[in-house]
Design brief:
The chain is 15% helix and 28% strand. It is an alpha+beta fold and 267 residues long.
Amino acid sequence: MTAPGDPSGNGPSAPMNEEPPPVAPGSGVVARPLGEGGPSQIEPAPAEVGSGSRPDRAPHLDPSGRPVVVQEQAGERAIVTRAQRRRARRAEMNRRQFMKASFWGGMGFGLTGALAAFLSFFWPRGVQGFGGKIPVSASLVPDEGEDPVRVTTGKFWLAHLERGAGTHGGFGFEGEAGLLALWWKCPHLGCTVPWRGDFNFEGVTGWFRCPCHGSTYTRSGVRVFGPAPRPMDTMEVTVNPDGSLSVDTGVIRKGDQDNPQRTVPYA
């Protein structure tokens, strides 16, 4: 049994003149009538043609509020912020500073190494023999007033002066008794000066006399005759507790009239 009003006999149908539900404005759909006097058909609203403008950005992404620098590069306009420009400049400066520091640091390191090698080569270390400290046993130390003793390894004469000895004819200042180490090199031209115990000069026997040019010196090395410009040079003497000596041939003091006053007491 069919419901009234259903031509197909399948049940009731909606009235032909029923209007579709109202469409809210801005919903993106439109109602279009199917025919004259007929119901309307709902269709999607056509998309609006773009105006070419981009949508508004979020405030923190809007570049219009930032200072910019416009640069022309290869026919294009590149927009670079000042902060980026400063960062690029700092990076370039840091590279330059690094290169300069590397260059000068390498050069300084090389020069320092060369100087250290030079000093290490010429600086005396652990010198033995002449130029270092020469030990002299107590048995070699002459008694007070005896002739000086020759110490070949140290190139010096070891004299044991009496009080007031070592002066002659107004040359030299009197000093106390003690030991004196005299470098046997003549201050004139460097000849080796021997001790002449038998040589007599001006009524005194026993002198240091240079064989090259005749410079003559007292027991304390004070020059009294000859072309030598000054008395014989002296070396530093240290007396050890056991009576032995240590003569530093690397510490040489130019001779002068006070040679007799440079003696080291020896008991």
